[in-house]
Design a protein that fits this description.
Helix content of chain B: under 10%
Oligomer: heterodimer
Distance between the termini of chain A: 41 Å
Order of helices and strands of chain B: EEEEEEEEEEE
Largest interface: A-B, 24 and 24 residues
Largest sheet of chain A: 6 strands, mixed
Shape of chain A: globular
Helix content of chain A: under 10%
Structural class of chain A: mainly beta
Number of strands of chain B: 11
Number of helices of chain A: 0
């Protein structure tokens, strides 16, 4: 069974204080690793997909990286609008479902 | 123009009632999903349909019954609601041949009193 563990569960950052979120996973054969952002009262919003170890993707202040066992979401010089819960999910070959982690709740203080 | 829309956004009801949540997607996707997000924010898959055919049916009480009249719609009917059914329910869709990027609706917050 595919499993995802995210750490830390919660993170408070000062505006401009860069940090990283961790997503550790176990899958039978990784088809893709997905990062989503979820704001309170809203549905998860897709950010990135990573498919193979060594791959990196960036969007504004966010950068996602992937190894064979984990993914990191780096937040560079965060702003208050980056406050959200970040969800990591994995999908494996021969499986139509995504397995989600419990999320990293990030609060950026002005 | 909302890609995945679900109604209602809020649903407050008494124990024992029957209720439905509707979902529609205009992305042209073949696969649709229902998830339950509990108070700890954990997203758990309940059902998935591919082109009106049930392909994922997790261990969910049989009081929950999904219905897909066409590939753009996936509704969730819940019979005999219980307190433990209180949660946020999300609909999502993706291209077939997954797992692919899933696009989520805004959620339906169900409160059973």
């Amino acid at each position: 069974e595919d499993q995802v563990t995210q750490s830390p569960e919660a993170l408070r950052l000062q505006e401009g204080e860069s940090s990283s979120l961790n997503c550790s996973y176990t899958v039978s054969g990784l088809r893709g690793l997905f990062w989503y952002r979820q704001d309170p009262g809203k549905g998860p919003e897709f950010l990135f997909t990573l498919y193979s170890a060594g791959e990196e993707k960036e969007k504004e202040r966010l950068k996602a990286t992937l190894t064979k066992k984990e993914s990191f979401l780096h937040i560079t010089a965060p702003k208050p609008e980056d406050s959200a819960t970040y969800l990591c999910a994995v999908g494996s070959y021969g499986n139509n479902r995504l397995a989600f982690g419990k999320g990293n709740q990030v609060v950026v203080i002005p | 123009d909302t890609a995945v829309s679900q109604t209602p956004k809020y649903l407050v009801t008494q124990m024992g009632n029957d209720k439905s949540i509707k979902c529609e997607q205009n992305l042209g996707h073949d696969t649709m999903y229902w998830y339950k997000q509990d108070s700890k924010k954990f997203l758990k898959i309940m059902f998935s349909y591919n082109n009106k055919e049930l392909i994922i049916n997790e261990t969910v009480p049989n009081r929950f019954s999904p219905k897909s009249p066409d590939k753009a719609h996936l509704n969730l009917h819940i019979n005999s609601l219980e307190l433990g059914d209180s949660a946020v329910y999300f609909c999502a869709s993706s291209q077939a041949g997954g797992p692919n990027i899933q696009y989520f609706g805004a959620g339906t917050r169900l409160s059973v009193l």
